[in-house]
Amino acid sequence: MKLIPAPLALAILACVAPAAHAEVAIDVIGGSEVSFEGLLQTDGYWYDNDVANLDADGSDGDDTDFGLRRAELVLKGKGPGNIDWVLGYDASGDGKFLDANVKYKIGGDKKHYVQVGQFKQPNSMEELSSTKNNDFISKAMITNTFAVGRRLGASYNIGSDDWQVSASYFGRELTRNRAHGSGFGLRGGWAPINEKGNVFYIGASYANYDVDGDTIRWRARPDADLSNRLIDTGSSGILNADRTSTIGLESFWVHGPFKLQAEYMMNSVDRYDTGFASQPGSDFDSSGGYISGVWNVTGETWTNKGGVPGTSGAENPASGMWQLGLRYDTLDLDDGIVQGGQMDTWTVGVNYYWRSNFKFMVDYVKVDSERRGVDDSPNIIEARAQFFW
User: Fold this and answer.
1) Which domain holds residue 73?
2) What is the pTM of this model?
3) What is the pLDDT of residues 287-341, one digit of tens each?
4) Quick one: which of 227, 224, 339, 229 has its CA closest to 284?
5) Does the CA dihedral 146-389-8-352 come out positive or negative?
6) Where in the sequence is the signal peptide annotated (predicted)?
7) DSSP H or E segment with residue 144
8) pLDDT band for position 353 (50/70/90)?
9) Which CATH number is 309's domain given?
10) Cβ atoms 314, 321 nearer than 8 A
11) Cβ contacts of residue 353 below 8 Å, gap of 6+?
């Protein structure tokens, strides 16, 4: 897609605007301390195609995609009393609601609370991580494919600095004509080593929800958020689907300026047995995972925030924070007569956090995919400019 004037203007703004402080305070309204946050991201992708044309614009010969990835605007409130609330909207693309919920802290404990509204469900460490601090421009394939993101529902959460457990029941997404299907999620984790710059965390999650319409489709892009997809279970979807469930295993280790992070997911689609040979009822199973390493060249480190890595800002904002990252990512969508394909990617990334509100990212992605006997191994260069407050 072509870079339209609005994203271009936002990119220029990100380069020339003076540094702001995160979370701009507005006022105290009805006993609630109201603040305003925002996140603007604009992306560019350059494709070295092999077989398929990754350019989402179609066969225009440019082999590129540019566009506004996110334009998130968020109001937050603390109080009155033990109540926190948030209302967020992403104005990019067709627009969608982000977090829109109320949280009640039991006994005033921020780690023991109930939450009602739309929020990220308790699964996938990477999905729960803050978007502005992603290690790579695209989240891993399993995260984009299997993770349950924001849904309307209710959750109960309890924990301490070293452990946490969450349980939720959810339905559809708040924005019309997006994700739907009622279900539940569970997530728990423990950090036997837990101090700034020295963390070891392990956890697991489980999500299970109804497949509305009795068909479900799994497909994945080659770690490039604006590109066409390379592996796909088919436009007709997986037929006779009743429910789908995902087991997730997750861990990260921090030692000073180094971080290792990994997740593995196993998904199953439970299918009706129709009794017809043309419509088999056997379940469809798929899986994937990633492992990544990041080095803060300028010496900063991470903390543990409820089972997700907390990124520290630059120790010297004027000179900024540099990161180097490497990730191996894999996804297998082949099972029985459903041949969705397999894909492996290697991503090498460089990130630069400048002052308190800017981030610039460049990734190189090497792809190796196979679907129904056709091998496709393109290369992709990606870039992102980000402004946040």
Assistant:
1) 5-388
2) 0.91
3) 999 999 999 999 999 999 999 999 988 889 889 999 999 999 999 999 988 999 9
4) 339
5) negative
6) 1-22
7) helix 141-146
8) very high
9) 2.40.160.10
10) yes
11) 313, 314, 320, 321, 323, 359
